[in-house]
Write the structure tokens for this entry.
Amino acid sequence: MKLADSVALVTGANGGLGKAYVEALLNAGTNRIYAGARKLESLAEIVSRDPHRVIPIQLDITDAQLVNDAAVSYSDVTLLINNAGVALNYGGFVTNPDLKGARTEMEVNYFGTLMMCQAFAPILKQNGGGVIVNVLSILAQATSPVIGTYSAAKSAALALTKGVRAELVAQGTLVVAVMPGTIDTEMSKDYAGAKVSPVEVVQATLQAVTDGIEDIYPGEQATAIATQLLSDPKAIEKQMAALLPTAQA
Ligand SMILES: NC(=O)c1ccc[n+]([C@@H]2O[C@H](COP(=O)([O-])OP(=O)(O)OC[C@H]3O[C@@H](n4cnc5c(N)ncnc54)[C@H](OP(=O)(O)O)[C@@H]3O)[C@@H](O)[C@H]2O)c1
């Protein structure tokens, strides 16, 4: 896909990575960018960069009505970036028994992304194929027991991504899975280790969109895990298990 000819829709466009997507798309010459957020006022800053090309839209991806209305109203979209996501439950599956947070993670990261894919697949077909980008996490492939329910929700979203890719190949839609490690945004503000910058994740994504690459692992952390998963997946499971405080005691 040529980014300069595209019309993009970015969910969670007020967040750390979402804003970086909008900025990079502006720089790439994208015709128009629909910037989605739950609260319109949270988009003021990013819209001010280019009010002619950045169109703010109110979009909670867990609200079926809003999602379907968006597909009707923004039927010129050729590049859908499903970036919105939440991480609510820090802790293990057993040690943090907060089912409410776990269900919301599934609602946003899996069901919200699913609804967006369902609503926009016919639009992309009508517009010649287009591209869906699903922002997942390396934890979709390597469960972290210290952020267990989020890993599970991203794993569900990875299964969704592979299935949607298979379904939409016939209509010429590229479906890209973005699987970074920890990114330097609000979501990971309490994480002390190394993080990849939002700009690096966005650059890798837009390169994949341009070159037709299906799976990407931006940043050193994600690349190392993805490489080891190919040769020794059990070793990764053990490394992840070692993150638990009980394993370190
Ligand atoms: N940060 C990391 O370490 C990391 C690592 C790997 C993958 N990711 C993924 O990267 C994506 C972007 O996250 P981020 O790092 O930029 O974190 P962030 O700054 O917290 O942004 C998350 C965005 O998702 C939006 N959102 C949450 N629930 C929503 C809903 N129901 N409908 C629409 N938008 C919703 C948030 O909007 P509000 O402001 O309204 O809450 C916010 O714009 C997420 O999918 C995340 O899982 C992050």
Observations:
- The longest strand covers residues 32-37.
- The chain is about 45% helix and 10% strand.
- The mean pLDDT is 97.
